[in-house]
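Help needed: design a sequence for this.
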């Protein structure tokens, strides 16, 4: 390994906008289990599956409709 490296000709990461931000989120256990089960069937990590689902909701500007009447 060199003692010093020359970064004068380096380039910025072109994928910097595609990087993900780590957050803490509380999700109830049955929901996590659902996504884990679905992710196993598809062959993806469950966190990636949740991210894809949320990304789809954001891209299509889906809104949650809740009816609190019983």
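Sure. Designed sequence:
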């Amino acid at each position: 390994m060199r003692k010093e490296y020359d970064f004068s000709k380096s380039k910025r990461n072109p994928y910097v906008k595609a990087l993900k931000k780590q957050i803490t989120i509380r999700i109830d256990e049955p929901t996590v289990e659902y996504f884990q089960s679905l992710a196993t069937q598809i062959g993806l990590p469950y966190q990636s599956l949740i991210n894809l689902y949320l990304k789809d909701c954001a891209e299509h500007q889906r809104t949650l409709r809740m009816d609190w009447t019983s």
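Residues 27-57 form one domain.
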